[in-house]
Amino acid sequence: MLKISDLTKKFGAFQALNVGQIDIPRGQVTGIVGPNGAGKTTLFNTVGGAFRPDTGQVMLDGTDITGLPPHKLAEQGLVRTFQISRDLGALTILENLLLARPGQLGESITASLFSRARIRAEEENAVEQARTLLERVDLWRLADQSAANLSGGQKKLLEVLRAMMLSPKVILLDEPAAGVAPTMEGVLADFILSLKAEGVTFAIVEHDMEMIERLCDSVYVMTEGREMMHGSFHEVTSDPRVLEAYLGSMV
Ligand SMILES: Nc1ncnc2c1ncn2[C@@H]1O[C@H](COP(=O)(O)OP(=O)(O)OP(=O)(O)O)[C@@H](O)[C@H]1O
Ligand SMILES: [Mg+2]
């Protein structure tokens, strides 16, 4: 589904990213782990349109999407969430989901040229989509409350819901479980697996190894900007090179 080849990114003289080949297979959840500073977020930033890569190629479902900005990527079916939850401000939970869809709610000049009935229909559609998503994670009852009041875990869940508003083929999740209480972690994991069962493809950066074990069909280990190993959860966690990479990063 997503093929990342020879992707590099430098910050000044520092080579933050230098991967050979990373494949994210259709309908699977692929984990990306590695010590702090290994380049995992930089990988997502470079694939997800925050930065242009210096070299390399990213293919999504057979289409070259290298260097496209986030809104173009979303049109192609790729969205990402962020390591640090965004400030959700004074918006309600429902508004947060509605605003995740681009060009909505009669904002644009072109939209205002359409009939009111059509804009209305689009809005109702979006609300229906948001409602269905919120009901699945038992947040619909809170839809009109300020998103600022949500727990850390609920905010992470909301990020996944926002991504789903774009009906993506692939979602890149950057540390979805960071700062999430154990019960919410279970809710989040079950939700991700239910989306997988519907055919959504995931790549997940995560330090929580229980989450990785529970969710991932296979796992890449990154160190120093490179993918050093790929295998099952058991294979990568029993490999001495992986242990060394983690220990090495602590000294
Ligand atoms: N915008 C940037 N400008 C300069 N250096 C950066 C930038 N973003 C990341 N880096 C550097 O690139 C390296 C990789 O960072 P990155 O955030 O990708 O690591 P990570 O694997 O996501 O780590 P963590 O597990 O702590 O989130 C680090 O040394 C970091 O300081
Ligand atoms: Mg990171």
From TrEMBL:
In the UniProt record, does the keyword Metal-binding occur?
no
Concerning CDD domains, the annotation shows: ABC_Mj1267_LivG_branched
A Pfam family assignment: ABC_tran
Keyword list (alphabetical) reads:
ATP-binding, Nucleotide-binding, Transport
One GO term in the molecular function aspect is: ATP binding
Q: Which residues form the ABC transporter domain?
A: 2-249
| PANTHER family associated with the record | CONSERVED COMPONENT OF ABC TRANSPORTER FOR NATURAL AMINO ACIDS, CONSERVED COMPONENT OF ABC TRANSPORTER FOR NATURAL AMINO ACIDS-RELATED
Q: What is this protein called?
A: ABC transporter ATP-binding protein
Q: What is the lineage of its organism?
A: Bacteria, Pseudomonadati, Pseudomonadota, Alphaproteobacteria, Rhodobacterales
